[in-house]
Amino acid sequence: MAQHLLPTLPIPPAIELGFTTSESLKSYFPQLDLVKLSDPSLNVHKISSRTTHNLVAPPSSSFPHIDDPTEAWEALYPQGSVNPANTIPGGFGFYLSGANEFRSRLRTSKEVLMSYGVMFQEGWEWVKGGKLPGIYGGEGDSAYGCTGGRQGDRSSCFNLRLMWRAAGNGEVYAYLNPTPNNIAHLLKVPPSSKQNPDYGFSVGRGAFQFKPGRWFNIAQRVKLNDVGHENGEIQLWIDGESVIHVTNLTLRESTEAYIQGLHFQTFFGGNSPDWASPKDQRAWFGNVSGVIISQTE
């Protein structure tokens, strides 16, 4: 993938408001509120009690950019860890609603873009795969716990975390109501998509590839469908390049469902030992941003 330059957040021309923890991004988009990378500033909640997300100065990138984070949340993946609920917990997990004004407007917003940076340590071993943060939403508290094989209330939540796979191949791991229309549109995303037994969809596997030792900027846009219509959208950019775009989706069946923020979760797995981290490993997360997109209809 070609070297990216600022800005790496693909902000559309019409935005209502937004926030960022990146001073570089703020300099390019003065309309964004600059906030700290901290739990209170970003309304972090429902934190996994068995893991940490300490704020640290990350190591230097092997492929530096002017907007690389100078502080980041560090995720630890001990040898043998599979997920935060496993015998050996790894990674971290929480929900993030964004800065206060942004959070207060989510309830009535139809289209939102959120982004963050991630860097995997040099010498990273991918194994079979693992989870990365993504946008989530739904009807009130039903938006929580949308992953991991949940069978009930599939129409009342959506969760759009990412995954890394073997060799660093990336995908969106989508939990959407498995309507015939959603299934059809998700499964046709190139280069490879499939429906999984836990009700999640691997969408666009191999559309991009992570590499250790450098920062990647991940930006995700969600546009809610009008209730009763199949016109929702999901779009993903990596370092400013659109790599996945799915249209004609149903993300909600009620006006009570809304975009609630980022499910900021990462771990190796899967659940079984063959997914586990083969050694102690670290990744870093920073430059968290969010934008509410104006509707012109």
Provide a concise account of the structure shown:
This protein has 297 residues and is mainly beta. It has 3 helices and 17 strands. The chain has a single domain (15-293), classed as Jelly Rolls (Sandwich).
Q: Helical residue percent? A: under 10%
Helix and strand composition category: mainly beta
CATH topology: Jelly Rolls
Number of domains: 1
> What is the gyration radius calculated from CA atoms?
18 Å
Describe the structure.
It is a single chain. The protein has helices spanning 23-28, 100-106, 180-187, and strands spanning 15-20, 33-34, 44-45, 55-56, 72-77, 92-96, 111-120, 129-139, 157-165, 170-175, 194-195, 201-203, 215-223, 232-238, 241-249, 257-268, 281-293. By secondary structure, it is mainly beta. It has a single domain, classed as Jelly Rolls. The strands form two sheets. Strands 1, 2, 4, 5, 7, 13, 14, 15 and 17 form a nine-stranded mixed β-sheet that branches. Strands 3-6-16-8-9-10-12-11 form an eight-stranded antiparallel β-sheet, with helices on one face. The longest helix is centred in the middle third of the chain and has 8 residues, at 180-187. The protein starts with 14 loop residues before the first strand and ends with a strand. The model is unreliable at 1-5 (pLDDT under 50). One of its GO terms (molecular function) is lyase activity. Keywords: Lyase.
